[in-house]
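User: I'm preparing a small set of examples for a lab meeting where we compare how different chains pack in three dimensions. I only have the primary sequence for this one, and I'd like the structure in token form so I can line it up with the others. Please keep the answer compact; I'll paste it straight into my notes.
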Amino acid sequence: MRVGLFIPCYIDQFYPRVGIATLRLLEHFCPGQVEFPTSQICCGQPMANSGCTADAKPAAERFVATFRPYDYIVAPSGSCVSMVRHHYHGLVADEAVLAEVQAKTFELCEFLTDVLQIEPPAGRFPHRVGMHQSCHGLRDLRLGKSSELNVTPFNKVERLLSKLDGIEYTQPDRADECCGFGGSFAVYEEAVSCMMGRDRIADHQRAGAEVLTAGDMSCLMHLDGLIRRERRPLRVLHVAEVLVEGMGIGGA
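Assistant: Understood. Below is the structure token output for the 252-residue chain.
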């Protein structure tokens, strides 16, 4: 099995520790099978979301050409995976090749749970953890139950962390509300975006969270910026970092 690791541009530029944690995690469960193709670039999501379709097309074509040879493509980002799986139509000329790549592109947590079908790993993480449900991961990829659905509750991210000794999940009042980031929305609607982010942080703090985690570093980047500016006592970690720290397989 060849696993192609896709690292989103904002992680590459601002949070390389998350990329390293993701690599360590994948190498732990897929030893000798993980590759990082150096020809990869942005998936094109920022351009597509801003309506710049012509600029998004070369990025989409590059992604498909770069990752087509792999058996699986894995990224620590629900939004980037959602872009590839649900929003590449019209951006890639060869629909048959696109369908092939889409079918083997996975968010990190769903790859571990659905493809590798690992048991939740043992370890220790003695903290009260607030889980932020990012919109793309929740509603595009169905990594957990969203509040509007009348189905049996599930959460793939929480399940992965469930065997870490000492972890305690806190329960915010509005478990799947948007953080307000939304890419360029945070720029064009700065005031609304910040209000939404502060609401999410306050909700998690009322619930008693010590650590805020998620599968999307873009959401956490937005929340962490507000947390640091207001000097709130919350530690922000991507779920890959929580697993790596809890399992003791190297610092992130």
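A couple of notes for your slides: The CA atoms of residues 8 and 172 lie 28 Å apart. The radius of gyration is 18 Å.

User: Perfect, thanks.
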